[in-house]
Design a protein that fits this description.
The longest helix is centred in the middle third of the chain and has 32 residues. The protein has one domain: Cytochrome p450 (Orthogonal Bundle), CATH 1.10.630. The chain is an alpha+beta fold and about 450 residues long. Helices cover about 50% and strands about 10% of the residues. The chain has 17 helices and 12 strands. Bound molecules: protoporphyrin IX containing FE.
């Protein structure tokens, strides 16, 4: 650990990474490692070859770690694959009829209706809401500078989403929604040994009583929120846009259940992912003073001491590169999954119906054959080589193809605004020996959190 931290002085900082298997471990040990922390369940084969296939209950499980294979599954031949039953079993109880879970024609119709909500023109309208929440967060920090970054960023991104989704939350108990979302995400978002068994989609995944209560509350809060709106004049926040969303091809609206499940889906998909991006980014910046200084200088040059406006975001090139590099090192969704429904061939390997896929973003983002110095924190790589973010590059924190994250523009806008504002206005003090292991539950969290003090720059 000390060795790694000392290497900061050589120009690069090597932040925590998952210890790969060495390849000699037996099946039982590897499976145990995988269950404890899936990103530590991969060895040299996964890091050195584009596809690794293992037997899986009479079928095959293929681990893909290169962009060509990922693009084939997610984009070029997306029609031959669906999300797996594990995904459906985890997400189903909360958002069965939402974009995250549906397939086929229902997905196409919903995607066409929902995607315009996240178009540029709406993003510009939402930016001031993010500023408002950030200013409230800063006021809290000024009173109490000590925080756990993970908890603090979860609070911040929840409040941003609540503000953007709910606008003026008349009659809605925000605390109730916050508590219920957290519990529902924690309960659903923890992998368990039985998740490795290929249960059919209709077999329910047992949920803890706490998780089940949280889900009930989440659904009733979402119902109350939808009821509080006039369908003929639902407002122009994201809930309003969701209520008035129409599939431009068929003219069809979303059903009442689809609206509710999408509302819940946005909270589930958009809250922790963005919080983790910011947690890891602030950790990296807090551990690497030169990066903090460059972000501060950039934000001051572009915005002075004022708020970061929507039009400023594209000018914050380095701040954005830090967000990109953070999501390379710590992709909030470190692994995607798919199941094959039509035979094909990938990297010369025959893929049969029922085979499943782990699309291991985390491994792809850190493999030597695709990245220079992959474990180093080097945001400039994205400025030196903009092609590292091009379509088909080995960088897919938001997925790829037709199911690419629908909230990507919102997430990037929020992350750049929050990182830029917080780093300009605060010194981030993190204990020098803080070196949290990246731990994958469903998302990628810093194990044990990140204790910090954020002290106002005088
Ligand atoms: C840094 C933040 C985020 C990351 C890293 C992220 C990542 C992802 C990824 C990897 C997928 C594709 C999953 C797959 O193909 O299996 C996805 C899908 C999705 N995301 Fe995000 N996401 C983020 C923020 C958001 C936000 C803010 C929202 C909404 C407010 C959102 C809503 C969704 C939805 C609804 C889908 C499903 C899209 C579909 O299947 O058509 N995400 N996200």
């Amino acid at each position: 650990m000390t060795d790694t931290l000392e290497r900061r002085d050589e120009g690069f900082f090597y932040p925590p990474h998952a210890q790969p298997l060495n390849g000699d471990e037996g099946f039982i040990y590897s499976t145990w490692k995988f269950l404890r922390n899936p990103i530590e369940g991969f060895g040299p084969m996964a890091y050195n070859q584009p596809i690794v296939s293992v037997p899986n209950f009479g079928k095959k499980l293929h681990v893909i770690t290169d962009p060509e294979g990922m693009m084939q599954v997610l984009a070029l031949e997306a029609k031959k694959f669906t999300k797996t039953a594990i995904d459906a079993r985890i997400l189903g109880p909360a958002t069965k009829e939402g974009l995250l879970s549906v397939h086929g024609d229902q997905w196409k119709r919903q995607r066409r209706a929902v995607a315009p909500m996240f178009a540029k023109r709406h993003m510009a309208d939402l930016a001031p809401m993010i500023t408002e929440v950030l200013n409230g967060f800063k006021a809290k920090l000024d009173k109490e500078p000590k925080l756990d970054l993970n908890a603090g960023m979860a609070e911040l991104t929840f409040d941003v989403l609540a503000k953007a989704l709910l606008g003026d939350p008349k009659g809605l108990d925000g605390e109730r929604l916050k508590y219920a979302t957290r519990n529902a995400v924690t309960s659903a978002g923890t992998l368990r040994p039985d998740d490795l068994v290929p249960w059919p989609r209709w077999v329910p995944r047992p949920i803890s009583p706490k998780g089940s209560r949280a889900l009930k509350k989440l659904k009733s809060a979402a119902d109350d929120l939808l009821d509080s709106r006039d369908v003929n004049n639902p407002g122009d926040d994201l809930v309003g846009l969701l209520i008035s969303a129409i599939d431009p091809k068929t003219g069809q609206e979303l059903s009442r259940r689809e609206r509710r499940d999408n509302l819940i889906g946005f909270f589930i998909a958009g809250h922790e992912t963005t919080a983790l991006t910011l947690t890891w980014a602030l950790y990296l910046v807090g551990m690497h003073a030169p990066t903090a200084e460059r972000i501060r200088a950039e934000v001051i040059e572009v915005c002075g001491q004022g708020d970061i406006a929507y039009d400023d975001i594209d000018k914050l090139t380095f701040t954005r590169a830090v967000i990109d590099e953070t999501m390379r090192l710590y992709p909030p969704a470190p692994m995607l999954n798919r199941e094959c429904h039509e035979e094909t061939e990938i990297h010369g390997r025959k893929i049969e119906i029922g085979d499943t896929f782990l699309l291991a973003n985390y491994v792809m983002h850190r493999t030597e054959r695709l990245w220079e110095n992959p474990n180093a924190f080097d945001p400039d790589r994205f400025i030196r080589q903009p092609e590292l973010k091009a379509k088909g590059a080995p960088y897919m924190p938001f997925g790829a193809g037709p199911r690419i994250c629908v909230g990507m523009a919102f997430a990037v806008m929020e992350a750049v605004m929050a990182l830029g504002t917080l780093v300009r206005d605060y010194d981030i003090e993190i204990p020098a020996d803080c070196y949290p292991r990246p731990l994958m539950t469903v998302t990628l969290r810093p194990e044990g959190g990140v204790p910090a003090r954020m002290v106002r720059v005088s």
